[in-house]
Design brief:
Blueprint lengths: L2 E2 L3 E2 L22 E5 L7 H7 L3 E6 L2 H11 L4 E2 L21 H12 L5 H19 L6 E5 L3 H10 L6 E6 L3 H4 L1 H16 L4 E5 L5 H4 L9 E6 L12 E6 L3 H13 L4 E7 L2 E7 L2 E4 L3 H10 L7 E4 L4 H11 L18 E4 L15 E7 L12 H6 L12 E7 L9 H24 L2 H18 L6 E4 L7 E4 L1 H17 L3 H11 L4 H14 L5 H10 L7 H7 L6 H16 L4 H8 L6 H11 L5 E3 H14 L15 E11 L5 E12 L1 H16 L1
Parallel strand pairs: 1-9, 2-9, 3-8, 3-9, 4-6, 4-7, 5-6, 7-8, 10-17, 13-15, 13-16, 14-15, 16-17
Antiparallel strand pairs: 11-12, 18-19, 20-22, 21-22
Helix pairs in contact: 7-15, 9-10, 10-11, 16-17, 17-19, 18-20, 22-24
Length: 695
Amino acid sequence: MIKRLNDYVVPRGIRFISELGTDFRFYKFPVKCIINKQLPGCGFTEYCLRGPENVILCSPRKMLLKNKKDQHKDSVYLVVNELEKELTVDKDLSKIDKTRSQVFMDTLKEVVHGKDTVYNRLMNEIKDYLNERKYLGDKPAKILVTYDSYRIVKDILESLGIFQSFYTIIDEFQTILHDSKFKSNTELDFLYHLHQSHSALFVSATPMLEEYLNMLDEFDGLPYINMDWASQDPTRVLKPSLKVLTMKSVGTKLPEIIDSYKSENFESAVRMINGYPTKIVSDEAVFYVNSVNHIVSIIKKCDLQPEEVNILCSDTPENLKRIQKKLGKRFTIGKVPLKGVKPKMFTFCTRTVYLGADFYSTCARSFIFSDSNIDSLAVDISEDLPQILGRQRLQENPWSNSAVFYYRTICDYRKVSQEEFNKEVERKKEITQNLLDSYSSAPDKAKYDLAETYQKMAKSFSYKDNYVAVNEHQSGTLIPVLNNLVLVNEIRAFRIQQIDYRDRFSVFSSVHSRLTPDDIINRDVTRFLCIYETYTTIHDKLKMLCEYRFMSEDIIQIVLGQIPDSDEVKSYYLALGPQRLRALSYSVTFIKKELGIVTFSPELLINTITLNFNPGEKYSLANLKTKLGNLYSSINYTATPKATDLENFFETKEAKVNEILSDGSKKRVKATDIIGVKPEYQEIYNNLKTINNIL
């Protein structure tokens, strides 16, 4: 269990840590503790880099360290370790290279014994940096390092006899848990070496929830300190303004926003600047969507140019290749703009920059996209949302503390009950214990081979069947252990996808309890959705929507934002209004007659197209139009079929096929070659094909 200590109360009039002066020093905290800084942008990291103490600042992301290096230049030393690969956190875990971390660890075995040129280079560079700091007046040393390379820095400073003079700060430490699914050995190794260190301050404005901390032995007994910004001055802790809306998919909603910006349909606000009211126009947009594939697809679909786009994602060869293959060599992985640099119109951010990146736009709007049906796109409401909302640093930006949050609840076929989940966890724990027992009872000469097998199994199957990890801390000896990080992370992932995104009420309730400011409005909306979600018929939902007594007329617009555009209830309400719907007794038959149209479901179109076409197929343009026409007629879709319609759902390219003429001869004609399913429809496609095969 963590050990609760008294809050650190920040005095009135203080907005940044640096303003505390000598009242804030690391020696006043326990040498090992958890610090919940509570307030994003409070300057804690800046204090680490400008304060009087020697600091090893550990960050989970290279991009964030590079951004700090760019801001502080020669006053900090950034560890550049070519053995370390940029962590890819912006795609589905199933696609991650499982061998990456092991290659690093294997090479590191020689590094720590001083046999590698990387170790020698880093040793010399750190010596030069430390000598320079001493020459400049014995200024404090600031070493920036990723979690992966901490081991090397610790070893070098110990060999120099000065490690004890450094404070180790673990920034955004909740990622230790989040990243454990695909780099657990690295995270376990990092925690082991932190345990061997004399100091370790685990810092975050959004630490992992206490229930998770209490499940992890690595944090057992650690003092836990809250920085209290609110009690002395509540105005310092402003809850963000978050507009919460449903969406059909990222691939449909995001292009709509881009089109609006391209049409110069900008939002505006008035701010007092130099004593005069000044109109500020939001002609910049920052999109938080954790998928490089989705980003690339959307950029291509919207025909955006390199000068309009900044792509911020993991700086890996794989990501760069993916971007340039689809978009061309002029597109590349960008950098977080420094203060004073004008951002591009559109900035796309993956999880790489959810943490700690500083944006200094004077007018950018933030848009967050979360699809709980795709692992990489599920935004953690308790941790990711507050982090994202803290990225815009300039208070003169009218939208610095606001965002639009688009979400999609989990589909029925993906829902898992708590009982089912618990049963699966117990099954994996039982298998884990059996494997550990087999290792313990094996002859000594067989233990190494058995542990090596377990290690390969963890890499190949990514903990799908058990929680066995293999530690290598003791002179290279392989020791199988239960990887509790992965187990707890699975519990966290279940909460995010299966509880927070179970339905619209769950989403709104989670956001309301953790983030949004207007309690009266939120309570009214939450109360409505709690009842609304229990109804199963259009009649009952319409009746409640029209007859519920909201506290204000504005609340109905918030409620409508939680109902998908494709929902008939919303369509009927917007088309006819509450008075006419009452007159029609909420009868679907009467409503359809009143509207005088043949209703059509967009979901039916998607399902029909994806079920009837497959990658690898080629169609002449004429045959494609004919097939599309027949499919449209079967679902009462009145649009004129065009060969290009297929590009909305599939990746295609131009081709040629042989067409047999009436006289039996062949003619080469233009055709469409289906080469793949668009990312936003891949899951729908897979599920439909599976169901179809079963039937």
